[in-house]
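Support request, please re-run this one:
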Amino acid sequence: MKITFIGADHEVTGSCTLLEIAGKYYVVDCGMEQGKDIYENVPFPVNPSDVEAVFLTHAHIDHSGMIPKFVKDGFKGAIYATEATVNLCNIMLRDSAHIQMQEAEWKDRKAKRAGKPAEGPIYDLNDADAAIRLLRPCDYDKRYVISENVSIRFNDIGHLLGSSAIEIWMTEGDVTKKIVFSGDIGNHDRPIIRDPKTIKETDYLVIESTYGDRLHDEAKDSVTDLANVIQRTFDRKGNVVIPAFAVGRTQEILYAIREIKERGLVTGHGDFPVYLDSPLASDATAIFMQCPREYFDDETRAILEEGIDPIWFTNIKLSVTADDSKMINFDQEPKVIISASGMCDAGRIKHHLKHNLWRKECTILFVGYQTVGTLGRSIVDGAKQVTIFGEKIAVEAEIAQMAGASGHADRNGLKAWAAAFEKKPVITFVNHGDDESCVSFRELLEKELGYNAVAPFSGTEYDLLTGEPITVTEGVLIPDKSGTVNAPGSKAQKLYNDLVSAAEELAELTKNSKGRSNAEVITLTERIRNLIEYYK
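Re-run finished. Output below.
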């Protein structure tokens, strides 16, 4: 009985953990890495064809996105998830396959021009369809027997429609142990879906730590906050551009805008238009609208009982084709544009940023976590200029974030969920957080809850019969493009970030030097050239 950590260890994305139970293998999540890749992941240690089943906590691509590749490499077992997760994966894995194919086509054309061989996509639509056929829908709170040695139960964790913490009972001989995977733990009092459910007992716990080192801003009236952003932006005759995850966050924003319109919280701009510019988001919204009511919280169910659609309203415009998307930015009327991806690294949102980021009258409103290394994180961190489609774009728009909008519990929320166990787990494994968050939350669990907590790196193995480590690995950092390796959060990395920030300020100063005296311009030019020559 063994656990091996593969992905999302001291990193936020790419969740993947391997269990060996009575000589058979099971995988919990099989996610894609997104944003900057900080640490090396060990190669998957067994052949996918030897894996009996995958247990999926929820549909987000950082937890599900490599399942088609897993199938492509030989996996033929069942994939167990809640019914809503199955429905969402049906559209999300196909969408991911399209992205892989489009990116591969672009890269292969570039490789061909350079005389290099084409690599093809990580997986294609056929692989995604094959994976979808293996999905097995499960109910919340029902125990399922997977084999004579394994049974599982899904618990609503309040992060996304259908998201779960998974209880797994493992038996070898006459010994049974239980392990709980938290998945991504949601916030309390979020719209549409229910609050996270706690679990009373386990031998082992694997818990996320996305916000393990910080608290969310004080909870406010998010509807009023959003209305204020829309009001001041429209008064400037600008657009509100919202990079939003197509599944989950988009539907919460639609829920809030419906209420804004019902209550008349934005004045002077009539029945303002809202563009939903993401085919995936449109499909996901349809799944939310058709979902059984038991998935929703009391407030949403009450709205439905009144015959009101909680996430739909007048003057919402669906943008389906690429031409539809392009036309949005030729319309001068102030509008709300909701588009994916939520971290701005791919998809149609990049086109909207290109057209709106440089306009002082516009607002870019972030409503979700931005992973280190993504375009969204650069903008949130105060970049004065970013590169989009090879073009330098000045950041002149208002950059705003919605307080408390995250779908992840913060440090206190994670602590409260972990503290609900009536007996301390033998070991608590902390994952799914960047290096600082992961280590900080492990220390909190030890100091404040008295838990035996570890933060394993990829490749670490534990014997779950004895609770003893088999292999303990250290993180292997991936060099950046310059070949430099700097641990996230290290002094060297912070100094480097300061250097980049100073260079951006110098570039801004230089751009604004038009109108200075000739002597000043000559002096500044010489100093910059001397500086460049010195460090060359």
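The chain is about 35% helix and 20% strand. The first strand starts at residue 2 and ends at 7.
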